[in-house]
Write a structure and sequence with these properties.
The complex is a heterodimer of chains A (101) and B (360). With 101 residues, chain A is of the alpha/beta class. Helices cover 25% and strands 19% of the residues of chain A. Chain A has two helices and four strands. The radius of gyration of chain B is 21 Å and the shape is globular. Chain B starts with 8 loop residues before the first strand and ends in a 6-residue tail after the last strand. The chains are: A alpha/beta (101), B alpha+beta (360).
Chain lengths: 101, 360
């Protein structure tokens, strides 16, 4: 291993990349869920319906939604297709998502 | 060449200290690395003649930018010669294709690791091992290219075990996982030709999979060889069985010659394996049920009647989901093959990229 021109020191290139954190901001608050369009984006995990159905039941007991949109992510291990995200964003005021297994 | 965004410099007073600094800073996967000195990086950049600040893309889950400089630094750490780095670059390009789902592969609780399959003239030109011990040690090219890929996943993608890499068991391929196709022992077209490239091209096919399962196919007739492979595939606790997706079958050259001589083609082999690598519902429910009341698993083909305990569930849902490559040594009295189950439909699907040796 050859020494560098700066005396006997070895100069290494840091191989680590900085973490790329996409810029984001908190969505505007919608002031409650009554009369809002609600979305449920099931994450596709085989156990997801148990939790999602329970959350859905609690929310529908407590709030009166103007409409409900149900979607299922086709691949639990990958992000939702862009078209699904666009559709849910266009049709809903708020969305229940699931992360993990 | 665009203005170069230089990486941080890190200093050491000796080779010994440099190696230890790499450990202290978390740059290695546990094995020692070649310190990525300015001189070695500059030499490789001169060979590649590419802009060091050029980014191939974002490596998840940390979303670090895979710049040429970072790729070179990590490749040197893995033991790559400059001539190996175009192979590493092609491997990254393949893994960044959407169907590979690199973020999922990097972060899943499954053991999946990316396997690089190098094919074409570059195999002999650079001394990749495609023969004896193809999945093992002994070849600088295999070891270094596979290691470079892993170190990039580590240092650029942030896939540290127990942190963003949630694999519970993992496998040794997460140190290095690279083989080459045995062109001399392959009676059919090269894997990259089947994937759409030209015979004179060199390519790397990336596939996310488990560690190889050795299959002692023995000295039998072709149908016995193929049955042995189908039998090895017919287990209930791999992600192909649960979730479909692709698998990899590695035919040793002796087995390939035996079946090819009897008239088998890649596609007839696939058809046979699809038909015969199957598990009865009754056996599946003994171990693959997701809760004790389950009568079926969600990922089974819809045409399976779960009430029929003798119905046979195909481990691979379609013949074309079986990737085939010829690799390994000839052996002595018996043939050996291997299977590498995939991660299912979730990702790691085989992607092939041509290796480009110089900037065109």
């Amino acid at each position: 291993m050859c020494a560098q021109a700066t005396g006997s020191r070895i100069v290494m290139i840091n191989p680590v990349a900085d973490a790329g954190i996409p810029a984001s901001e908190v969505a505007p608050r919608i002031g409650g869920l009554n009369d809002k369009a609600m979305g449920f984006l099931y994450n596709g995990h085989y156990s997801a319906p148990v939790l999602f159905d329970a959350v859905r039941q609690k929310l529908t007991e407590k709030f009166k939604f103007s409409s409900v949109v149900d979607k299922v992510k086709p691949n639990v291990g990958a992000p939702s297709p862009d078209a699904t995200i666009d559709e849910v964003a266009a049709k809903c005021d708020a969305v229940v998502l699931g992360v993990g297994a | 060449m665009s203005p170069h965004h230089e990486s941080q410099r890190v200093y050491a007073d000796s080779v010994e200290e440099a190696v230890e600094i790499c450990y202290q800073r978390g740059w290695t996967d546990g094995l020692p690395v070649v310190p990525p000195t300015e001189a070695l990086v500059a030499k490789a950049l001169e060979y590649l003649k590419r802009d060091p600040s050029e980014s191939l893309g974002i490596i998840p889950p940390k979303n670090g930018a895979a710049t040429i400089e970072k790729i070179v630094a990590n490749s040197i750490m893995g033991g790559c010669l400059p001539t190996y780095i175009p192979v590493v670059i092609a491997a990254l390009e393949a893994m960044l294709e959407r169907p590979f789902n690199l973020n999922g592969v990097q972060t899943t609780t499954h053991c999946v690791g990316p396997l690089a399959i190098v094919s074409g003239p570059i195999v002999k030109e650079l001394g990749f091992n495609s023969g004896d011990g193809v999945f093992g040690g002994g070849s600088r090219a295999n070891a270094a290219v596979g290691r470079a890929v892993r170190l990039i996943m580590w240092n650029v993608g942030g896939a540290f075990p127990g942190e963003l890499d949630r694999a519970t068991i993992g496998h040794p391929g997460k140190y290095t996982y690279c083989i080459a196709e045995n062109a001399d022992g392959n009676p059919w077209e090269a894997i990259h030709v089947e994937k759409g490239l030209k015979p004179e091209d060199s390519a790397v096919t990336m596939f996310g999979c488990e560690s190889p399962h050795h299959v002692a196919t023995g000295p039998g007739r072709p149908i016995q060889t193929l049955y042995a492979i189908a039998d090895a595939m017919s287990t209930i606790c791999n992600n192909n069985f649960h979730f479909g997706g692709e698998t990899l079958v590695v035919l040793g050259p002796r087995a390939a010659a035996t079946v090819a001589h009897a008239g088998w083609t890649r596609n007839t082999i696939r058809e046979y394996l699809y038909e015969n690598a199957r598990v009865p519902v009754g056996r599946a429910l003994l171990g693959a049920a997701f809760d004790e009341k389950a009568t079926e698993a969600p990922g089974w083909p819809k045409w399976i009647d779960p009430a029929n305990r003798k119905a046979m569930i195909p481990v691979i849902r379609k013949p074309e989901n079986i990737n085939l490559v010829v690799a390994g040594g000839w052996g002595a009295g018996a043939a050996f093959c291997a299977i590498c189950p995939g991660w299912g439909y979730l990702g790691g699907l085989a992607q092939t990229k041509r290796i480009s040796v110089r900037q065109e």
